[in-house]
Amino acid sequence: MPDPDTEILHISDGEAAVQFLSCERETIPKLIVLDLKLPKLNGHEVLKMIKSSERLRVVPVVILTTSLSDTDRHEALALQANSVLTKSVNFKEFQTMLTDMVKYWLRWNRGY
Predict the structure, then answer these.
(1) What is the mean pLDDT of residues 2-26?
(2) From the CA atom positions of the chain, what is the Rg in Å?
(3) Under CATH, domain 14-108 is a member of which superfamily?
């Protein structure tokens, strides 16, 4: 799990995500978990902005989606998403997936 000092933010739409991420802050996120089906701007559009930003492009972006579309997955990977995960409809499986994702990206991964 993330350390207790890790701040977790939920941003409900793509425009708000771009606005939040565009603000110059002292620190950048350690991980961005992005849904493809966001209102206002979709996840692909937000991902494109993140990976075109000199400051943000090093932040790992995990796409978390209900989409099983190969097109959605290929587009996300072409836009340099670090991972694409399909949400499980089973809550326990979904919870395990999120726990494993956080462990990998925030504890075990040293590429960032």
Answers:
(1) 86
(2) 14
(3) Response regulator (3.40.50.2300)
- DSSP structural state of residue 87: P
Q: What tokens appear for 55 in the block?
A: 């400051």
User: What string of H, E and C letters represents the secondary structure of 11-23?
Assistant: CCCHHHHHHHHHC
- Cα separation, 78 vs 64, in Å, equals 16
Instruction: Name the DSSP letter for residue 70.
Output: H
- Boundaries of every domain in the chain: 14-108
pLDDT at site 55: 94
pTM of this structure = 0.89
Q: In this predicted model, what pLDDT tens digit does every residue of 26-35 receive, in sequence order?
A: 889 999 999 9
